Amino acid sequence: MNINVIHSFDLSLDEMKAIQQSLRQQIQITPYPGQPKDVAGVDLAYFPDDRRAVAVIVIMDYATQQIKETVYHIDEVVQEYVPGFLAFRELPLFLKAWEKLHYEPDLVFFDGNGMLHPERVGLATHASFFIGKPTIGIAKTHFIGEYPEPQKTQGSVEWIKDQGDVVGAVLRTQDGVKPIYVSVGNYIDLPSVLRLTQHFVGKESRIPEIVRQADLLTKQLRKQALAEEA
DNA sequence: GCGACAG
DNA sequence: ATCTTGTCGC
């Protein structure tokens, strides 16, 4: 099965699930030694009409956390949101923005899950097969799996298990705040995911800085686009 | 059958 | 995700 069928408009749930099951067999979990040079953060924001969205990619220097490049793409959204199939809704827009990049990031953070997914092929995992880069999934709310409640202090971590597999981790990024849910996208392992994610957790935000910057820009560009149309 | 359900 | 102000709490 060709993964490029993702560009089709009318895949059935069974067809999408078949694609995920095919991709699952090709996941490669491996440590990510050392530090990446450039990392990317990806996020989307939807317009009020619910027909369009803006996809944003922010490139940041890993060591200094300085933003080196930002690209975006505004277009029609062709797939409705169905839990478990977010990739089919968001990847088309993301890929168009990806083509506009001048930098080639070594690692990419997505707003959503990686293997923390019923078929182990969430947004971050699915995307990795198109871009061929290590990916990480960062979700703000629980999706699947069971886990013990992490301690209330910053840095507390617990594994998330689903059907006997460790599929991700819950991470308390600040004292007393709701935790985030992190998982392997592809071409990386969970310990590396936690290490690289915590590098972007500052003092102020609950969300890793690389993802937060993409999120902020996404809403800023939507506001700008709406203003220009008025 | 009922509830849950990334963004 | 998005619609939205004030307000409870540290």
From TrEMBL:
Site (Interaction with target DNA): 81
Top-level class of the enzyme under EC nomenclature: hydrolase
Gene of this entry: nfi
Example GO molecular function: endonuclease activity
Catalysed reactions listed for this entry: Endonucleolytic cleavage at apurinic or apyrimidinic sites to products with a 5'-phosphate
PANTHER family (alphabetical): ENDONUCLEASE V
InterPro entries documented for this protein: Endonuclease-V (IPR007581)
Family according to the record: Belongs to the endonuclease V family.
Name of the protein this chain belongs to: Endonuclease V
EC number: 3.1.21.7
Role summary: DNA repair enzyme involved in the repair of deaminated bases. Selectively cleaves double-stranded DNA at the second phosphodiester bond 3' to a deoxyinosine leaving behind the intact lesion on the nicked DNA.
